[in-house]
Amino acid sequence: MQIWVDADACPVAMREMIVRAAHRTHIQATFIANQFIRLPPSPYASARQVEKGFDVADNQIVAEAEAGDLVITQDIPLADEVIEKGVTVINTRGELLTKENIRARLNIRDFMETMRSSGVHTGGPAPLGPQQKQAFANQLDKWLVKAQRYHAARAKSSD
């Protein structure tokens, strides 16, 4: 079990939180981006720069993420693809994306894209506030607890 981060749109505050959590729990976090990403030093966090291009980072995450892993992304189509593989997905606002809610998110995304392409200014998301940062930290901690239990159970069964 490991953490994959769609790092191009991941706020610095969340990157730092992820690295601290990975270091504390000894769970690998890999940040994939089309550009250089600076991370706090940790043997449990790495940044990988992929070629520039549409969905190159997303495709890399889809190829490498496995059932039980965690993907952190704002990208709804990416979330949909990895959810199908049994991956847990949270966005940087702390929302858990699941098989039950991803279709509605895709529909909203497609609707907003249609609006923008027809010239309607839809604006962007509101800035991250303390509530979103706390929600993100809570969701990340829930997954980390689950991952640590899994690792402990595997270690115990191999004894």
Task: Provide an overview of this structure.
It contains five helices and six strands; from the N terminus they run βαββαβαββαα. It is of the alpha/beta class. A six-stranded mixed β-sheet has the order 3-2-1-4-5-6, with helices on both faces. Helix 1 runs parallel beside helix 5 and helix 3 runs antiparallel to helix 4. The protein is globular, with a radius of gyration of 16 Å. The model has no long low-confidence stretch (mean pLDDT 89). Pfam families: DUF188. InterPro entries: UPF0178 (IPR003791).
Helices and strands, with pairings:
Elements (H helix, E strand, L loop, with lengths): L2 E4 L5 H14 L3 E5 L11 E5 L6 H9 L5 E3 L3 H8 L4 E3 L5 E2 L4 H16 L12 H29 L1
Parallel strand pairs: 1-2, 1-4, 2-3, 4-5
Antiparallel strand pairs: 5-6
Helix pairs in contact: 1-5, 3-4
Task: Briefly say what this structure is.
This protein is α/β, with parallel strands linked by helices. The protein contains 5 helices and 6 strands; from the N terminus they run E-H-E-E-H-E-H-E-E-H-H.
List keywords for this structure.
alpha/beta; 5 helices; single chain; about 50% helix; about 160 residues; UPF0178 protein BZG73_12780; six-stranded mixed sheet; UPF0178
